[in-house]
Design goal:
Elements lengths: L15 E3 L17 E4 L6 E4 L35 H4 L18 E4 L10 E4 L8 E3 L4 E5 L9 E4 L2 E3 L3 E4 L2 E3 L3 E4 L7 E7 L7 E8 L3 E5 L10 E8 L11 E11 L10 E7 L19 E5 L9 H12 L17 E8 L2 E9 L4 H4 L7 E5 L21 E2 L2 E5 L9 H12 L2 H11 L2 H13 L10 E5 L10 E5 L39 H9 L4 H12 L6 H17 L2 H9 L10 H7 L5 H8 L3
Parallel strand pairs: 7-14, 15-20
Antiparallel strand pairs: 1-2, 3-4, 5-9, 6-7, 8-12, 10-11, 10-13, 13-14, 15-16, 16-17, 17-18, 18-19, 19-21, 20-21, 22-24, 22-25, 23-24, 25-26
Length: about 625
């Protein structure tokens, strides 16, 4: 066991303090009277980490540091337990700055500085009124700036911490509140030192300037799968897009891991739902200028070597595809929108993410009464529309690789419409299929999907990673479906597991067309019937649609503009390199030049499709 401080815990020391449970989070404290004496600690302070709330209103088992036998409550719970050095190395005890409310989520420092204090330590660093996000593990302070705005020549620097009288940048000593000349550029790392006028020891730290928003998440009860745990979220966006003008957005929320397959990866994706802290009811917000909603996604992009495929591809799909009912629902959106962010999780840098909204009933503007949305998640015959091996049941949300995304409550779930569609595609005669398929499925949706999947070489979206939706089952005699893509990280020259593709031949089967996920599997039945039967001369319509969009929304130039946008966000901001450094040494598929990754594979299938369909 190591000791951060020079003194051991003294048996008569009265300084152990603890925050009441209802004050957890990033909230200002009025002073020491907001804390309750519970025991004793070292002469010069103790760090406590709040693990969970006690029934009596106080944290039941905080953690601490030291090498002394720790006091125990009458209940038998240890007041203080050791925590590893890496988690606390950059922190300092403090009982002076409590009123500033500058504590990291889930962490507080208590006690009084005294003899043996190691070095001045800083825990807050606002720049021009923007509160920086703190990575306490690496003693770094993240300042997001607007990459499209001219930065001021001088900035106001403020700071707080135990024993910090000044900071140094280069040879210049700076006092808190001083306006200084400081050039701020995205991707810049500014080395600093925090010092005290009477102590020689200096603590090094770093100001990291990023060009993307920063999201801070504190989850004191941990994070798990399929069970949202409480957390606090702070989102700082220098463009002030959140709720139309907010720089720093704070909210209580529930958070969980996202994606069953992604759980095996070290860097996990998350979904979170904003909530009212007092009532625990869901609460909407317009994060980063996206839709006003309660449910949000943080995509880790673990498998994507370029860290932009999903965003580039969904932006293209938004440009390309129009929902057939858009005249009735002009606000309907057929894919997600999102932006890169950098994450601080529980006081430590966690990497580059995409914060995005979701594809759901609300996004697609499907009717609450009559709308249905199903997600294909596996490579079953049902998901490929090849046939039904197990009759559907409405007693569960899942059936044969499908999930009922909406509705999702037993009693409202209805798989009959999807089952009928599968049976039709699998078994209808050639004549019956030609006569009815445009009644059962919006043909413009199918044509766009066929072109899109082939241009992007999206093998992983030929059965799995597909949404099937009904706008309103009550409008037509036969339910009319739309088809939408989901999870597009296995595109633009790589498979889902990062295998690099030949730009023209793909994986080398089906003459370079994307009709199924691998050479030994069954075909995606809608594509199979297009190629084998050409119902109502759909191949000619595919060709005409391709000719209409190849020089505009699906042009290499439009793709390049989106690649350039995200490249600037993640590369010039330094976020991509920081993410690489954070996750180096873990098993993953590596990093690649985003521009070369995407543009080198840009629409290599246009000529293949043109040659394949021109005769029709």
């Amino acid at each position: 066991m190591f000791s951060l401080f020079s003194n051991r815990f003294g048996p008569d020391d009265p300084h152990v303090l603890q925050r009441p449970a209802d004050r957890i989070g990033r909230h200002a404290l009025n002073g020491l009277h907001d804390l309750k004496p519970l025991g004793h600690t070292a002469e010069n302070g103790v760090l406590s980490v709040e693990e969970r709330r006690a029934a009596g209103g106080f944290i039941d088992r905080p953690q601490g540091i030291g090498d002394h036998d720790l006091p125990v409550r009458r209940s038998g719970h240890a007041l203080l337990n050791p925590v590893e050095r890496r988690s606390v190395e950059g922190l300092a005890p403090d009982d002076v700055e409590l009123a500033a409310g500058g504590f990291p989520f889930g962490v507080h420092l208590v006690g009084s500085p005294g003899r043996g204090q190691r070095a001045a330590r800083m825990f807050k660093l606002p720049i021009d009124g923007v509160t920086t996000a703190v990575d306490y593990v690496n003693n770094s302070y993240y300042l997001p700036i607007d990459m499209d705005a001219v930065q001021p020549a001088k900035v106001k620097v403020e700071f707080g911490g135990i024993g910090v009288d000044f900071i140094k940048i280069g040879d210049k000593k700076i006092k808190s509140g001083e306006n200084i000349a400081l050039s701020l550029n995205p991707g810049q790392n500014i080395e600093m030192e925090a010092g005290n006028n009477t102590i020689d020891k200096i603590r090094s730290c770093r100001l990291i300037v990023t060009g993307v928003p920063v999201i801070e998440i504190s989850a004191p009860e941990g994070i798990e799968d399929e069970n949202k745990r409480p957390c606090d979220i702070v989102l700082t966006d220098p463009k002030r897009r959140t709720n139309n003008s907010v720089l720093r957005f704070e909210s209580y929320a529930g958070i969980e891991f996202r994606g069953a397959g992604a759980l095996r990866y070290a860097k996990k994706s998350f979904s979170f739902k904003l909530k009212n802290r007092q009532t625990n009811e869901n609460q909407d917000a317009k994060l980063l200028g996206l839709r006003e909603d309660q449910s949000w996604i943080l995509d880790a992009m673990w498998l994507d070597c370029s860290k932009m495929r999903n965003r580039v591809c969904f932006d293209l799909w938004n440009d390309f595809n129009t929902l057939y009912y858009s005249n009735t629902e002009p606000e309907a959106v057929n894919a997600t929108h999102g932006y890169p962010v950098e994450m601080i999780l529980d006081g430590a840098y966690h990497g580059l993410y995409i914060l995005s909204d979701r594809i759901d009933r609300k996004q697609l503007k499907m009717k609450k009464k009559g709308g249905y949305l199903y997600k294909g998640k596996e490579w079953t015959d049902e998901c490929k529309l090849q046939g039904i091996n197990t009759p559907y049941s409405n007693s569960k949300q899942a059936w044969q690789g499908f999930e009922s995304d909406y509705p999702d409550e037993v009693g409202e779930i209805e798989f009959k419409y999807l089952s009928d569609l599968i049976q039709f595609f699998a078994a209808a005669s050639k004549e019956e299929f030609a006569a009815q398929y445009e009644e059962r499925l919006d043909v413009s949706s199918l044509i766009d999907y066929f072109i899109f999947i082939n241009l992007l070489s999206a093998y992983d979206n030929t059965g799995r990673n597909v949404f099937w939706g009904i706008y309103n089952v009550n409008l037509t005699l036969l339910p009319k479906f739309i088809i939408q893509p989901w999870d597009l990280d296995g595109t633009l020259g790589r498979t889902w597991d990062a295998i690099k593709l030949d730009p023209e031949k793909g994986l080398g089967f089906d003459n370079g067309l994307i009709l199924r996920n691998d050479a030994g599997s069954k075909y995606f039945r809608p594509f199979e019937r297009i190629m084998n039967e050409n119902p109502n001369n759909i191949k000619r319509r595919i060709y005409e649609r391709l000719m209409a969009v190849k020089d505009n929304v699906l042009s290499p130039a439009n793709l390049a503009s989106k690649v350039d946008y995200y490249k600037r966000q993640i590369v010039e901001s330094g976020a991509l390199e920081r993410d690489r450094q954070r996750w180096t040494g873990y098993s993953m598929y590596g990093y690649a030049n985003p521009e070369e990754e995407a543009k080198s594979a840009a629409f290599c299938k246009q000529d293949v499709l043109k040659l394949m369909f021109i005769k029709y």
